Amino acid sequence: MSAIFEELKQAVIDGDEDITAELSQKVLDEGINPVDAVQQGLIKGIEIVGEAWKAGEVFLPDVMMSAEAMKAGLALLEPEIAKLGISEGEAKGKIVLGTVAGDIHDIGKNITGAMFTAAGYKVFDLGTDIKPEAFIAKAQEVGADIIGASALLTTTMVGQKQIIEYLKENGLRDKFKVFVGGGPTSQAWADEIGADGWAETADDAVQLAGRVLAK
Amino acid sequence: MLPKYNILTEEQVQMIHDESIKILSEVGMEFEYEPAVEVFKKEGLKVEGRRVYFTKDFIEAKVKLAPSQFTLHARNPEHNLVCGGDNIIYMPGYGAPFIHEADGTRRKTTLQDYENFAKLAGASKNLHMTGGTMAEPQDIADEIRHLKMLYTSIKSSDKCFMGSAEGRERAEDSIEIASILFGGKDVIKEKPVLISLINSLTPLKYDERMLGALMAYAEAGQAVVIASLVMAGSTGPAAMAGTLALQNAEVLAGISLAESINPGTPVVYGSTSALSDMHSGSLSIGSPECALFISASAQLARFYGVPSRSGGGLNDSKIVDAQAGYESMMTLMAASVTGINFVLHTAGILQYFMAMSYEKFIMDDEMAGMLLHYLKGYHFDEDGLAYDVIAKVGPGGHFLTQKHTRKNHRREFRIAELSDRNAYDTWAKEKLDTNQRARRKWQEILANYVPPAVDAALDQKLQEFIAKRTQELM
Predict the structure, then answer these.
(1) With CB atoms 3.0 to 4.6 Å apart as the test, which of A113, A178, B166, B272 could cross-link to B229 if both were Cys?
(2) CATH number belonging to the domain at A94-214, selected among 3.40.50.720, 3.10.350.10, 3.40.50.1580, 3.40.50.280
(3) Distance of CA A171 to the CA centre of its chain
(4) Interface test with A, best of B30, B31, B138, B210 (most A CBs within 10 A)
């Protein structure tokens, strides 16, 4: 049984979405414990890639493709885990990500999503041009720990502030940590709007999440 | 002027063109603005939703309508600029949200920074115009930033400046302000005064803001830079030729829109394509790859018979240091020697367009001066060959006391303004590096600069218009 976990791990390391999906389907077909497949296969693979990226041994496309492969596996295994009513094991946290209303730039957000996935977080990426209410609706639906809002334009940064205002108006401010990021943003801006976190790079954002959620 | 050097063969240029046409006809491009889609429909192109599929004939016919060069008119006609041909136009950086101070600290840009850069560009011998959004004035409400920026440009210098590209309404305000200053919309339609920066949203899209502005400027006969910034490896393929073809497709589509709206619209072929750093994903512009895109863009624009925009003092450094210097010189020199006509971001940029620096501005201004001198090349007249004085001094003498030397050295040599050419002991009195010397220099320039006055009656009209619009917009 451990052979298939090893194969899953390798498929994630290779960033091979198709093989990861095939193997995950095999897990289901053969009645292998899906939680073990996630824990000993997918997550082990992504951890190795994450470490190799930090060490400068692999590059961003490697990490992002591994994250995609892992998602493909989870898409098959998670419904089964839910059906069996067993615990998936502890994800490090859940993060809802999106680019704010009026802004359709998403490269930075996509990189951030992949880095969080690689670090063992569950990422819900809403895409671009997302209104505050949509961020919050998703965060409530999935029980998110963090809402991550990206903006590339000085003219759309205000969308990050609106998320925090929306949370306050609806008495939800203490339910979620709000992280902001993107080219024109800064720690000063995060402080000004009362965000819980800001980071300049995706990797910094992951580190920060670890610290904030540990509190 | 030196001959422009080409990095691609004629066959390679043709291949890029063919690839771009293939992208435009088979993949198509998306235009997130209905009036733009309508223009293409009327032209008989195949449209599916927002996706437009171009044809070779359409693109080639439209690009032919664009002028090979045009004059951009300034408040002071001495500063009129010919964009195209052998001409080169240098100007400050554009759009950065941060200032990096001399000590490396970072802060938000303000309207005061915008004014300071307009004045520094106004005072410069090497920068031909003041540009636009030299620093985003984040202390001003977003709704009226464009009004404040335009007015500040007008008050700070009599050189050419840029219009707002933030959507149709702000473009129309820019046109209105320019027509007040220059005597009416008919006047500026004949003699363009504004040039604005229209960017694609790579890959293969244009957004509503940019399309609205493009259409307003084309209708008003104002010049537009149609630019694409492909980040090879993330918003484009990890392939230099493929990225060039992708960029070229986007620019051609934008030019075809401008020429469909108003045949003869002055356009500039723009590129700031570079790469995504494969470790962090961030843009990297101080790179040999960027220099390759700059060089090829100059050549492609020549192939299409339109002026080009690219390059600048581009770099990824955070402070005025050696990296800022060597990267910027590579990209500014690539732009200058390959024949780029309109060099946005010549002065001030740090960290892949994220920041402006006063010290970097002064260092880049020096580099611009060096390159303008380099581009002049040699003088092959009698004084330039200097046979008589060589014969007169003969073997073993020296030239320092010759009239020819005194008369010619100012034409033949450039006087360094920032570089330190002193002996060690002279330098060692203060031990100032480039960053510190530049800091001292920009402060002096600003302290001594007197902006050319605007006619009081015109100024009154401008202020009234801005006050009226401010009331409407706020």
Answers:
(1) B272
(2) 3.40.50.280
(3) 25
(4) B138
Distances (CA, A) of A12 to A70, A72, A115, A125: 6, 10, 14, 20
d(CA A194, CA A39): 36
Q: Residues B23, B249: contact at Cβ < 8 Å?
A: yes
Residue B224 confidence (pLDDT):
98
Give A55's pLDDT tier (boundaries 50, 70, 90): very high
The token pair that represents B8 in the structure block: 């691609």
B301 in Cβ contact with B308 (< 8 Å): yes
pLDDT (tens digit per residue) in B267-313: 999 999 999 999 989 999 999 999 999 999 999 999 999 999 999 99
Residue B1 has pLDDT above 90, yes or no: no
> Tens of pLDDT along A76-134?
998 998 888 777 666 789 999 999 998 888 888 999 998 998 888 999 999 999 999 99
Chain B residues touching residue A203 (CB < 8 angstroms): 280
The answer to whether A23 and A11 have CB atoms below 8 angstroms apart is yes
> What is the tens place of the pLDDT at every residue in A147-187?
999 999 888 999 999 999 999 999 999 999 999 999 899 99
> Do A201 and B166 make contact, defined as CB atoms within 8 angstroms?
no
B316 reaches A (C-beta below 8 A): no
Greater confidence (A154 vs B349) lies with B349
- The answer to whether the beta carbons of residues A167 and B89 sit under 8 Å apart is no
Q: How many CB atoms lie within 10 A of CB B432?
A: 13
- The architecture (CATH level 2) of A2-84 comes to Orthogonal Bundle (1.10)
Domain spans in chain A, listed from the N-terminal domain onward: 2-84, 94-214
Instruction: Measure B95 CA to nearest chain A CA, in Å.
Output: 9
Nearest to B139 by CA among B110, B175, B107, B181: B110
Q: Is B282 an interface residue toward A (CB < 8 Å)? A: yes
Reported ipTM:
0.82
- The residue among B362, B369, B374 whose CA lies nearest residue B434 is B362
CA–CA gap between residue A132 and residue A137 (Å, rounded) = 9
d(CA A118, CA B35): 43
User: At residue B20, does pLDDT exceed 70?
Assistant: yes
Q: What is the DSSP string of B401-455?
A: T-HHHHHHHHHHSPPPSSS----HHHHHTT---HHHHHHHHHHHHHHH--PPPPP
- Same topology, domains A2-84 and A94-214? Answer is no
Do B97 and A202 count as a contact with CB atoms less than 8 A apart?
no
Sort strands B69-72 and B81-84 into parallel, antiparallel or unpaired. Answer: antiparallel
Output the pLDDT for position A89. 67
